[in-house]
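Sharing a chain and its predicted structure for anyone who wants a worked example. Both blocks are below, sequence first, tokens second.
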Amino acid sequence: MFLLLIVAVFALVAVAAPATSTPPGTLHYRSYVYAGQTYFPGEGSFVAANQVYAERLTPARVTQPLPLLLIHGHGMTGTNFLNTPDGRLGWADYFLSKGYEVYIIDQTSRARSAWQPTVNGPLETVDSLTTSSHFTAVQDFGLWPQARLHTQWPGTGTMGDPIFDAFYASTVPSLVNNTEQDVTIRSAGSQLLDIIGPAIVMTHSQGGELGWVLAESRPKLVKAIVALEPKGPPFILAVFPPFTPQLQFGLTDTPLTYDPPVGAPSELAPVVLNTIPNVTCFEQPTPPRKLTNLLDIPVLVVTSEASYHAQYDNCTVHYLRQAGVSVDHVSLPDVGIHGNAHMFFMEKNNIQIVEQVVQPWIADISK
């Protein structure tokens, strides 16, 4: 009977596996934790809202001193880091293989972090055309100059392609109100860090803003930040019109601690550093204020060759450095890695990127 059970399980795994050859994953223990819930009055009772879900993946042998906390971007969930849409190993498994314990969240009001319509406000969904033109088939749309260089997405990146369809099926509605996202992650994410303890925070895209938020609220627990094309540039939207104000505190929509202190966001009084078509890069006036709670936290910003972030991540990096933050900025083509766009951590060369750029940096700052 036991032998039959083993054979049955093997058969199920074999059926579920993709057609391409995929190496086995890393043996690990999986659990989860919720943090930060608040009770709100409902119809005759109460509902819980604003909690954050975190999936905890612990390798059979933990060899690294600090765990990783992974934060996905807008319209996404923590599944981004588990495996790729075409069935290859994701970054979570790579880090498990290197002995890191890994925590992966679903942002508040997203996926397994419950959304309460009477508490959290409206949601929005990224449509399939925007997903193709901004992320997976950018070379076909040419919405920014570097887009033509994109070669690394597996498949066509458009609706009807099975790999795109698998990826788009994983997208979910997200909060419209970015300040609400900031506020709830500041609370729930901070409580999660209190549970985890000191950690390295890795963020992507809109999640990049949340890395700064957590560093602000728990500067002693955030030991480093790896920002994969973090939300930017400071103060104003870029590349895609309308170019409306955003990130009123430079890196976030909610307050950061500056020295000298800032009361209202207008006191930052940003000035134009430079402009290119559809991008205005702002900096602080001289002498610049310092971001007090980020000064002792090393930061790595990673930018791909063909992403729209290639237009302005340098602005975000300049703003951080001007505010006294220690930042290493790696543009992937500068280290011989070409053809990637915004979702590079799940593209064809995803393991090359983490193995040659991200993990060595983490290992170095963890010494």
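Comments welcome. Residues 23-234+289-365 form a domain with the Rossmann fold fold (CATH 3.40.50.1820).
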